[in-house]
Model the fold of this input.
Amino acid sequence: MSAWIAGTAYDAVFDDTSRSMLDGLTPQLFRAGSVLFRPGDAPFGFVLTLSGRINVFLNSRTGRDLLLYSIDPGDTCVQTTLGMLGSQVYSGEAIAETDVVAVVVPPAPFERLITESGAFRRFVFAAFAERMGEITHLLEMVAFVKVEQRLAQWLLDNAGEEGVVRATHAEIAAAIGSAREVVSRRLEALSGRGIVSLERGAVQIIAGEGLRRLAAGEGQ
Done:
């Protein structure tokens, strides 16, 4: 059994074929803030995240970022999958949100794994399908749901036990597909209505029920 696979999210996924082929790979450390790839880069390998989180953004010419998805242990990167299978360059940017420990499967071993390991192949395509579903949902939200609703739902989804969301206005804007200035105005309006309280780098939810009504499209 591969030493790095034991006890990870991949332990129950890979078969003996994939384990033997992955056995010689060594986990790598990517420091928080490291850029793993940028638009135009060619895929350098298939990343299997063991710990930490990677965020993948779509960048616009105006400088706005849209958070497409986050990669946690056991997740995969749909852009990397497309690149490895179709020889496509990246269109997004991946940044390590925290320190990340990951195993990078180079292109040649990846192709062998896809061909020779049924378990690895199923894992790649199942994860790809799930991730594409998430991206489709994100695009539907950005295209058809008002900013106030997206903001309210995101705050509810990301609040800690004490109702505190620790994120900057720019980070919230990237997560909901809006501009920082728009998010700042909406948060100021929510603060004026007593629904939230604004702190540096954080948002305190004061009236959860009011926020839930906004998320449902009521009271706008």
Remarks:
- The two ends are 56 Å apart (CA to CA).
- The chain has two domains: 16-142, 145-215.
